[in-house]
Amino acid sequence: QVQFEESGGGLVQAGVSLTLSCAASGGPLSDYAMGWFRQARGKEREFVASISWSGGHVYYADSLRGRFTISRDNAKNTMYLQMNSLKPEDTAVYYCAADLAKGGRSYDNNGSGMNYWGKGTLVTVSS
């Protein structure tokens, strides 16, 4: 059974950069398109970014494009989310998710179509 585990979250100050990782185990990351979602306390989950299996196609939430960068290294079985100029409103639990439809696309905030989810990593941005 394939599993995905996020790491790299923590408490940071506003303005800094942070990179999250999502590692696959039990199967190759290259079998999946991947995505990042986040959910702040008391709010609905929202789409952050996604990437096709090869990395050739990437998609971002309009509000985050230019500040967040999604990437993947299939040889390392790991996906990344680089987050720059972090703001307190970026505070959330960040989840990675995998889609067996490898081509990649933008997802709705519910992540409809995603087949697997990680347990999340908490990012807290202090002002």
Gross morphology is globular
- Which stretches are low in confidence, meaning pLDDT under 50 for 5 or more residues running? none
What is the number of helices?
0
Strand percentage, roughly?
over 45%
Helix content: under 10%
Characterization of this structure:
Strands 2, 4, 5, 6, 9, 10 and 11 form a 7-stranded mixed β-sheet that branches. The model has no long low-confidence stretch (mean pLDDT 97). Helices cover 0% and strands 48% of the residues. The protein is globular and about 40 Å long. It starts with a strand and ends with a strand. It contains no helices and 11 strands. It has strands at residues 3-7, 10-13, 18-25, 33-39, 46-51, 58-60, 68-73, 78-83, 92-99, 116-117, 121-126. The protein has 127 residues and is an all-beta fold.
Helix/strand layout:
Layout lengths: L2 E5 L2 E4 L4 E8 L7 E7 L6 E6 L6 E3 L7 E6 L4 E6 L8 E8 L16 E2 L3 E6 L1
Parallel strand pairs: 2-11
Antiparallel strand pairs: 1-3, 3-8, 4-5, 4-9, 5-6, 7-8, 9-10, 9-11
Give the key terms.
0% helix; 127 residues; four-stranded antiparallel beta sheet; globular; mainly beta; single chain
Short description:
With 127 residues, the protein is an all-beta fold. It contains no helices and eleven strands.
